[in-house]
Amino acid sequence: MESSVKRTQRDYTLAFKLSVVDQVEKGELTYKQAQERYGIQGRSTVLVWLRKHGRQNWSSASSGLAMPVPIKKPSSAPAALLTPEQKIKALEVQLREANEKAQLFEAVIDVLKKDYGVRIVKKPSGKSSRKSSSRG
Description:
mainly alpha
């Protein structure tokens, strides 16, 4: 790999990290394939990103906290049988994942704006894209 460029940790933007994590979690690449494709030198760098930014539980212990409650409950455990604490934990997991997804989308938008000059206009909430587009 004489033509590969050595990179430092500072070179990786949040958007880049989130993109790599997303590709690995979707199964498009293994973490080792991502390392090779993007010239990431550290053997555990992608794994660290997966633990920090991933939606799946990539760590053996969730930073000393109780194990996360899965979002999709098995059919044998209807929501009515969950304790309020279990429901709260499930909702906290859903909220965290929604926030991470929003952060990913914002990072993608930033990359599109900065690197590709794409102009993205956010519509005010409550406005339907079908009503505002006119055909004629």
